Amino acid sequence: MSWNWLLADNEYRLYRQESTVLAAGGFLMSTKIRPVYAWDDGSVRMYMRGDRAKPNMTTLLQGPGPRSPASKIMPFSVSYGVQLQDRKFHYLLSPQLKRQKAPFIQNSKREEAVSMGMRAIRLPYSGESATATTVALHQINHGVKPATQALDCLNCHGPSAGFDWRKPGYQQDPWTNSPDNIQPSPAVPASPSIGLPPVKESVLPVPSEMVTRPAG
Description:
By secondary structure, the protein is of the alpha/beta class. It has two helices and seven strands; from the N terminus they run βαβββββαβ. Strands 1, 2, 3, 4, 5, 6 and 7 form a seven-stranded mixed beta sheet that branches. The radius of gyration is 30 Å and the shape is elongated. 10% of the residues are buried.
C-alpha cells in the first residue's frame, strides 16, 4: 500500500483512467497482502517533527521498537508514502491541510500550505522542498480473518511453510534440527601472501661488559 500526497486533480484523473486501484488523493489500494514479520516487544518507534532524515533514504515514520528479551515475532502491514521534505534542513515538511476533497494540496497552493504549516509548528522552512519516501509499519489488529481461519503452527514451521526465517535473523526454521538444513559457517579467508621468505630469528651473543657478575 502506498499514498502519494502530491497528486493533483489532473494527475488523479490520468491515473484513474489507467487503473481502478488508485483512490482519491493518491492512495494505492491492494488486497490479499502478506504481512511483514518483525521482532516486537510492544514499544513503538515514531518519527518526531524536526528529526533529520538521511538524503536518498526511506524515512521510518512508525515501526517496532528495538529488539529486547521480551520481543516476539509479530505481523505488520507496511505503508509507503511520498511526502515533502525540506531540501536544506532535511526534515519532513508539515503542510497545513484544509477540509476539502482530494487532492489535499494543489500544485498552485503547495508553497503557501507548507509555509503556513511550518509556522504553525514553529520550525523553519528554507523555501525549497523536495520529495521523500516514507514507510510505516502498523501492527495488524484490525481487518484480520476470523478465528476459524487463523494460522496454525505448520503455516510457519515445517518444510512446506512459506515463512522466511532468515529475515528475523535465523539461519533456518528453529523447529528443524536436521544437519542437512544447518548452513555451515562461512570460511575464514586466508591471509594474502606477498611472496617474501619467512623471517629467521637469530640469537646474538651478549657482550662481556653487559654480564652482571655477583659481588663478593
